[in-house]
Design a protein that fits this description.
Layout: H1 3-13, H2 19-36, H3 38-43, H4 55-60, E1 78-83, E2 90-95, E3 99-104, H5 119-125, E4 136-141, E5 144-154, E6 159-164, E7 169-175, E8 182-187, E9 194-199, E10 220-226, E11 232-238, E12 245-247, E13 253-258, H6 267-270, E14 275-282, H7 283-291, E15 305-307, E16 316-322, E17 328-330, E18 336-340, E19 347-351, H8 355-360, E20 369-371, E21 379-384, E22 389-394, E23 399-404, H9 405-414, E24 422-427, E25 432-437, E26 449-454, E27 470-476, E28 483-490, E29 497-501, H10 517-528, E30 537-542, E31 545-553, E32 556-557, E33 561-565, E34 568-576, E35 585-589, E36 594-598, E37 603-610, E38 614-619, E39 632-638
Bound molecules: sulfanyl-(tricuprio-$l^{4}-sulfanyl)copper and dinuclear copper ion.
Length: 639
């Protein structure tokens, strides 16, 4: 235990929590366990046994724990970043325990942290309070995660957000011009380069009311955002919708599935044709057009747009894929892009090294298809184990199908039905959406764990009323047969996740004050001639605007009271001077709908109106000290 931790524990409990006293308590409890039940006693861990290791270590451990067992106080080997769907957030899981460890608010209004209510988050969110996050991806260098950023889409309002992994806070949100239903996103994998984003919906462009009722003229945009600056670099306009997105490993291509090449606007129209396609974008050719100014602009946006509607061109080709394809995933060797048929029981394997010939016109785009195995009814997404296998989620059948990529190619090439690429199927519960495997989207896929994000849990959990949780299942893929290990209810609705070893990221534990938010506070402090780490004062900034600077050290605020006038707009700027890890304070102003978190060495602010004269207590809502309840003061509102 560090001195900081010890200090905090003593502050919190006033008890002696020294190593010696703890050890004796631990002995006492394990003794109780052995006395209490033979079975429990027998399962007691042998000292030095590591049950957090990979499949082999687990099997070698002489303890018969289930493969996902992570005991009290033990850490998971893997992180999982989950999208939160309609909740608009990102969630951080531990794998294999499948414990939800933390949530990162992104597009949502989060009462616990004040995200969406604090001044800076409000500015980033531009007044919006909802979001629909589907796809989370980490930034890459050399084909694997570099631990810097997480990108996530908002399908609801056509935005891309970035989380700075160091501070686990959103540091940028980019609006995507002329886009609706921004759905599939994927960062480039050779370096932190572009993040490609698909508009799922076709609309009039520009969408200014001039053209409304001619859906055949609607278009969609494939948008490139710079992963470092988060600026929109360029867009490519195509004629039909784009669903999921993928990138290759070399920075040459990006992919988008198109499930509605008919451009229908009703369900029957949208599934009319038996063949749709996957768009393949030639990023080098697009960049050349952008550099040469061979582009247009749309409406009030000055982003260069390459118009690639209609025919195949040097910018985009359309690889025919049956029928209403959904997911598209590139395997860890970087050789194949796999599109899942959704309304066809097949997945279509596209050989990436043949694409150059298709762009050159030497072969037809469909000639790039090297396999099309039947995997089941309703294939949606494919994950990989790094050993040549695909794992495809099958929505209608509620299974995950494991298949052999090279065998599927052999079957297709030879037209030989005696070759069966299907290796194994496992039931999932129920109607699985995404599957993803540990490091599956990187060149280092390690074939340990597969997460299946099931859309319906039906009877798998206690009845909680009309809305049931989703069911996130964990499957051990380290052996030849898949093994379902764990069910876990989640709040709706994770669409996708990425899973990677814990060594790849290292968030800080005390705010380093490096992100843009602090520039805003430093500007204010300079303007008001105060030091954020010392200031406890009320500064009247105008007729009816006051800024209140305050500090906090457990268990007190720097101001025991402050005075404002009825009708004032009040901005409380709170700096937490505590630097003990996780010693958070916050600010809640009674009956004023003000509530935000301030982490150690952090500054946050919220603005509100003090309407009615009277005395209003403000208090710290985070349990920080034995005298936490006493950590409060009075806002006195004068008539
Ligand atoms: Cu739900 Cu990736 Cu938005 Cu498929 S998507 S399931
Ligand atoms: Cu500070 Cu509770």
């Amino acid at each position: 235990m560090s001195d900081d931790q010890k200090e905090r524990e003593e502050k919190t409990t006033g008890e002696d929590n020294s190593e010696a006293s703890r050890a004796s308590r631990r002995e006492f409890f394990s003794h109780m366990a052995v006395m209490g039940a033979g079975a429990v006693g027998a399962a007691t861990v042998l000292p030095g046994c590591d049950r957090n290791g990979n499949g082999e270590e687990r099997r070698q451990a002489q303890v018969d724990y289930p493969a996902d067992h992570v005991g009290p106080g033990e850490l998971d080997r893997y992180y999982g970043f989950w999208s939160g769907g309609q909740s608009g957030e990102i969630r951080i899981f531990g794998v294999p325990s499948m414990r939800e460890i933390m949530r990162v608010p992104v597009f949502n209004r989060d009462a616990a942290t004040g995200w969406g209510a604090t001044d800076y988050s409000k500015k980033l969110l531009g007044g919006r309070t909802t979001g629909d996050t589907h796809h989370v991806h980490l930034s890459y260098t050399d084909g694997t995660y570099d631990g810097r950023y997480v990108y996530v889409n908002d399908k609801g309002c056509a935005r891309l957000a970035r989380v700075d992994i160091e501070t686990m806070e959103v540091d940028r949100i980019t609006d995507i011009p002329h886009s609706q239903g921004t759905h599939g996103i994927f960062p480039q994998r050779h370096k932190t380069g572009l993040v490609l984003c698909n508009s799922e919906y076709c609309t009039p462009i520009p969408n200014d009311g001039r053209e409304l009722d001619e859906p055949e003229k609607y278009a969609a945009l494939h948008t490139a955002i710079d992963g470092e600056t988060m600026e929109v670099e360029w867009q490519v306009m195509v004629e039909a919708n784009m669903d999921l997105c993928a990138t290759d490993y070399e920075g040459k291509y990006s992919f988008a599935t198109c499930y509605n090449s008919d451009k229908g606007v009703t369900v029957p129209e949208m599934q009319a044709s038996d063949m749709d396609h996957a768009y393949v974008f030639n990023l080098e050719a697009i960049q050349r057009a952008v550099d040469a100014g061979d582009t247009i602009t749309l409406g009030d946006s000055d982003v260069p747009v390459v118009d690639a509607r209609g025919e195949d061109s040097e910018y985009v080709i359309r690889v025919p894929v049956p029928k209403s394809p959904h997911g598209i995933n590139v395997d860890p060797t970087g050789k194949y892009a796999v599109a899942a048929g959704k309304l066809s029981p097949t997945v279509t394997v596209i050989a990436i090294d043949k694409l150059a010939d298709a762009f050159a016109g030497n072969i037809e785009p469909r000639d790039c298809v090297v396999a099309e195995p039947e995997v089941g009814l309703g294939p949606l997404h494919t994950a990989f184990d790094g050993r040549g296998h695909g794992y495809t989620s099958i929505f209608i059948d509620s299974v995950v199908t494991k298949w052999d990529i090279e065998k599927a190619i052999e079957q297709y090439q030879n037209g030989d039905d005696s070759i069966d690429p299907i290796i194994d199927k496992v039931d999932v519960h129920y109607n699985v959406g995404h599957v993803n495997a540990s490091l599956s989207e990187t060149k280092d896929a390690d074939g340990q764990w597969l997460v299946a994000l099931c859309k319906f849990s039906k009877d798998r959990f206690l009845n909680v009323g009309l809305l049931h949780p989703e069911n996130d299942q964990l499957i051990d893929i380290s052996g030849s047969k898949m093994e379902l290990i764990h069910d876990g209810p989640t709040y709706p609705e994770p669409h996708d996740c990425v899973v990677f070893p814990r060594e790849l990221i290292e968030p800080v534990k005390v705010q380093p004050r490096t992100i843009d938010r602090f520039r805003m506070y430093e500007e204010w402090a300079q303007e008001d001639g105060v030091d954020l780490f010392r200031a406890n004062k009320v500064i009247r900034k105008g007729e009816d605007f006051v800024r209140v600077y305050m500090t906090s050290v457990a268990p007190s605020f720097g101001l025991t009271d402050f005075r404002v006038k009825a009708g004032d707009t009040v901005q409380i700027v709170l700096t937490n001077l505590d630097d003990v890890e996780d010693l958070a304070h916050g600010m809640c102003v009674a009956n004023h709908d003000v509530n935000f978190l301030v982490n150690p060495k952090d500054t946050q602010s919220q603005t509100f109106r003090a309407e009615k004269p009277g005395v209003y207590w403000y208090y710290c809502p985070w349990f920080c000290h034995a005298l936490h309840l006493e950590m409060r003061g009075r806002m006195i509102v004068e008539a």
